[in-house]
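quick q for whoever's on today - can somebody do inverse folding on this one?? i tried earlier but teh output was garbage lol. tokens:
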């Protein structure tokens, strides 16, 4: 099949949420213990509609919820002793299931624990008439599938979803896959497990697959995922199911460049991709993302934040302003039959004469983006994409766990910036 870059999008790319979507980072990280049920509950209660959380596959093939691969920072054992287990090399039973958080004493959750809680919460909300079938703003889970997991974790995700609620279509519009490596997307299209009849059906919202986001610290890396979408269109037979990239989630500071606005945003438009930004924690960052989404008319855009309550307030301000403008225009039209002149917008209100998106960057933004690029270069993140990632037809080993040496200076810089809410 030949790719037509401007062809009509399929239903799976349509938005089912009103933008900007508010996603709680690890639940409600700024006020409650990360990746805990209390944090997840408070996140949804604040008005956010998405929870971003992190997955690891244990040595006995149980999916657990933890941001870090090592348990040292967050978890202790039953007696309160410090732990330092590598989740990928440790069994859930009898070790990991008995760990608890240092603050609050909350258990290290399994994915099934989270799903059982999620289904109960959703059914309680929908039972009250909120977000029913086919409605907008459904509650969702964004699964951050860590790069150093084996690709077979995706099979176990499907297994756990069906174990908790045996209806894959029900999950399509409620679960987003977040991947850091193209191998996961390649695996989804290569392995026959994902060609079963249970895949590819249409849910009431029009979804035929899960949303699949590339999570990245560098928008240039995401271009390879977009190329893979084109590759699938060109090479996949009509009889075979395609699982495509539907969105990109980028570290917010990596978007503070003219190149991002003029080179990458058009790719989002052409492919009808959703766009999220993380970790957005203040009004300036929020407004910048919203400006991109509105001016570029992206199919859906959202933020991942440590402060979902505050970001919900910012979103409500936008919605209220839009209502007031609409109401004012409606009242004026009812009171007068006078023909009014067209609103005087300049021709370069949205795009300049070179077709570039018109969003002004402050000097501070450009300097911060430059500094950020220098930091990530310490870990080789500005290098060209690895050759194996460009071999779209190369087979993926479902059991392989990648091991990459991270520059300790880069790790310290990045973790310190995250600690103080800079990234």
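ok took a stab at it. sequence:
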């Amino acid at each position: 099949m030949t790719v037509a870059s401007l062809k009509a999008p399929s239903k799976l790319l349509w938005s089912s949420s009103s933008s900007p979507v508010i996603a709680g980072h690890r639940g409600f990280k700024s006020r409650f213990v990360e990746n805990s049920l209390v944090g997840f509950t408070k996140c949804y209660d604040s008005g956010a509609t998405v929870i971003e959380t992190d997955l690891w596959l244990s040595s006995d093939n149980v999916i657990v919820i933890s941001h870090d691969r090592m348990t040292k920072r967050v978890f202790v054992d039953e007696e309160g002793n410090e732990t330092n287990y590598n989740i990928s090399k440790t069994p859930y039973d009898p070790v990991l299931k008995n760990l608890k958080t240092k603050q609050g004493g909350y258990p290290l959750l399994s994915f099934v624990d989270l799903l059982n809680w999620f289904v109960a919460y959703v059914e309680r909300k929908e039972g009250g008439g909120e977000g029913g079938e086919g409605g907008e703003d459904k509650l969702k889970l964004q699964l951050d599938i860590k790069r150093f997991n084996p690709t077979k974790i995706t099979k176990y995700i499907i297994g756990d979803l069906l174990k908790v609620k045996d209806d894959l279509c029900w999950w399509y519009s409620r679960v987003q896959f977040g991947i850091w490596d193209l191998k996961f997307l390649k695996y989804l299209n290569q392995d026959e497990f994902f060609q079963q009849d249970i895949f590819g059906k249409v849910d009431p919202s029009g979804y035929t697959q899960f949303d699949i986001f590339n999570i990245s610290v560098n928008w240039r890396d995401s271009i390879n995922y977009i190329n893979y979408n084109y590759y699938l269109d060109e090479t996949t037979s009509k009889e075979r199911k395609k699982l495509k990239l539907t969105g990109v989630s980028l570290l917010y500071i990596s978007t503070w460049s003219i190149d991002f606005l003029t080179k990458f945003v058009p790719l989002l438009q052409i492919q009808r991709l959703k766009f999220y930004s993380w970790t957005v924690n203040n009004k300036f960052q929020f407004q910048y993302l919203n400006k991109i989404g509105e001016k570029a008319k992206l199919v859906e855009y959202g933020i991942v934040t440590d402060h979902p309550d505050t970001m919900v307030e910012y979103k409500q301000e936008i919605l209220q302003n839009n209502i007031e403008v609409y109401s004012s225009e409606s009242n004026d039209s009812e009171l007068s039959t006078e023909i009014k002149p067209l609103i005087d917008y300049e021709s370069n209100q949205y795009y300049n004469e070179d077709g570039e998106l018109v969003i002004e960057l402050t000097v501070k933004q450009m300097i911060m983006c430059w500094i950020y690029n220098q930091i990530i270069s310490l870990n080789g993140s500005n290098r060209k994409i690895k050759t194996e990632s460009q071999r779209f037809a190369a087979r993926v080993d479902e059991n392989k766990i990648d091991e990459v040496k991270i520059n300790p200076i880069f790790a310290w810089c990045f973790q310190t910036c995250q600690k103080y809410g800079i990234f």
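fwiw The CA atoms of residues 44 and 365 lie 31 Å apart. also The longest strand covers residues 50-57. so keep that in mind when u check it
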